[in-house]
Amino acid sequence: MAQHDYDRAAVRTLIDRVLAEGRTSLTAPEGRLACQAYGIATPGEGIAGSAEEAVALASGFGFPVVLKIVSPQILHKTEAGGVLLGLDSAEAVLAGYHSILANARAYDAEAEIVGVQVQQQLPPGQEVIIGAVTDPTFGKVVAFGLGGVLVEVLKDVTFRLAPATAADAGSMLDSIAAAEVLRGVRGAAAVDREALAGLIVRLSDLVSDFPEIAEADLNPVLATASGAVAADIRLILDPSPAPARPQHSRADILESMERLMKPRAIAVIGASAEPGKIGNSVMRNLVDGGFAGEIYPVNPKADEILGRKAYPSVLDVPGEVDVAVFAVPARFVPAALEEVGRKGAAAAVLIPSGFAETGDHALQQQVVDIAARYGVRILGPNIYGYYYTASDLSATFCTPYDVKGGVALSSQSGGIGMAILGFSRTTRTGVSAIVGLGNKADLDEDDLLTFFAQDDNTTAIAMHLEDLKDGRAFVEAARATVPHKPVVVLKAGRTAQGAIAAGSHTGALAGDDRVYDDILRQAGVIRAPGLLEMLEYARSLPVLPTPKGDNVVIITGAGGSGVLLSDACVDAGLTLMQIPPDLDAAFRAFIPPFGAAGNPIDITGGEPPSTYEATIRLGLEDPRIHALVLGYWHTIVTPPMVFAELTARVVQEFRDRGINKPVVASLAGDTEVEEASAYLFDHGIVAYPYTTEKPVAALGAKYRWARAAGLLPAAPN
């Protein structure tokens, strides 16, 4: 059934009737009608109002059959003793009918009993769950995993945004841990993947078409080699679904962001001549940082600040103002923002705290309303400010930063922002921007992504976030960005909260971090497990060239490092190349007899620089090898800087010839390996001392981005 064949009118009528009756869930027979309208296969069934009707229905379907209680008040039928399986005779159905009624009345004496559902019992198959839930961040999401009674025990479930495409549905079948079961194990036939994927798409279309469907379960779905049938259906309604969030157009976002990041004039509201004041620090950073545009201090009690004429109000400023940076207490922001709006500024950067983060949601909303009235975009409040190095712009009260490069970083937290600053300074990471988002009263990550995606000064983006205001807007912006440059996200708050009040299995499973994890992956985002990893990925990804294939080869001077590097490659999802005989022989020609070819290639620790050089050359020359992982062991025969210089020289030689493969290195040794690692990093080779995990993790992140960007095929299963 194609989308245009869906009977939406029938579902609309059904949902309206249920809501008009004051109910928030559909009975199983009603759920079956809704599913049938969307082409979701269900078994033959009927509702019996007496034992005799149950027997007649069962005889018509053929034995065995299943009996289920039908009651708007009894959602979890199994818990109520309201499900009986495998009834294979008229006598069994007769007795089962009376047993189910007794169980239901014992479970809830006040429940309305509509009848007993008599359902054709399906032949054995693989039990899976297909469900949907309304996530507070991402809206409608669809779920797939192993089903039946083990669904909440195993929790082997994956999520995608709804409506899901056929490609999304296919990827879900391969994303669960038990994916191999679906392909057939121990002689069992593989399930009908097309039928399963079709059910995922249809259910996702159903919940997307009707916002009132808050949760949905098809559990179990019995999947066989010849099809997939939803044996049990649960649909839960929300009579007042949340309205769609208002959206800014891409053109409007870019217009505001261009003026924010590349302003011609900045006003500092609350500028101060007194050292130690935030208004003084912001002014000093703007002036000392070399910002070439106009800087207007605004302070009614000063005539001049840092050699610049001060103005009592932003309305007194003689020229246009693109950005107003606020360094006044929160209670003074609304009145000053009114004036900024009347001045025609594009953005207000609200450094002060004292808004929603302290419980004053009303004050924050007042500020948002004022800004919206004038078309002013708000950055913050409760932030450290922002940097955009291409404009020599340090609009912050924190330490300045002027190492220009291609990495754009953002954070919700001021503390994390300062960690970003410190890491960047220590590692000399070139940044295009560092942006504080704070409370995200207005501007948020999707606005930044929209700008950085088309910003010629930015080559990679890394974001620390605690939440997303609008998950769908973020996904849309990320999908538009990832084909051009990598996006790394550190999502704080991974602890499972659960969905205690959820009325469905899917709802209970969706309450933790797995929804974020799956949907960020769906958007092509690289998720960092921690702060240091986020920063290292941001530093490394612009350095590494994009691989042209999956074959990774390890060349190491120490067998122990080779084993650890192999483990790290597996953990990072990399493919260690199966070395063909001719390449094996070529490597063996350069290593001693007691070394080991294969993969890792162990050249042993006592080898001179010429052995490192020869094997690295071979790894770069052979077109079947797509990436190199180097494991160096500190010896007097080949000192660290000798290794670093020869490696950088050889890699650059091949780059000059148009052969540009990603090369990462792990250096083990005395403290000299620190200088050698820094030298390699400066020459486009991601290298770390004292660790086998970090360089390989960076390479794995580059591979994940290349796949998400469509530059490499999906990872082999």
From TrEMBL:
Report the residue ranges that make up the CoA-binding domain in this protein. Answer: 260-355
List, in alphabetical order, the Gene Ontology terms for molecular function in this entry. ligase activity
**What InterPro entries does the database record attribute to this sequence?**
ATP_grasp_subdomain_1, CoA-bd, Ligase_CoA_dom, NAD(P)-bd_dom_sf, Succ_CoA_lig_flav_dom, Succinyl-CoA_synth-like
Q: Does the keyword Electron transport apply?
A: no
Note the Pfam families from the entry.
Answer: ATP-grasp_5, CoA_binding_2, Ligase_CoA_2, Succ_CoA_lig
Name the keywords, alphabetized: Ligase
Keyword Ligase assigned to the entry: answer is: yes
Q: Which SMART domains match?
A: CoA_binding
Q: Which domain of life is it from?
A: Bacteria
Q: What is this protein called?
A: Acetate--CoA ligase family protein
- What organism, scientifically named, is this protein from? Streptacidiphilus alkalitolerans
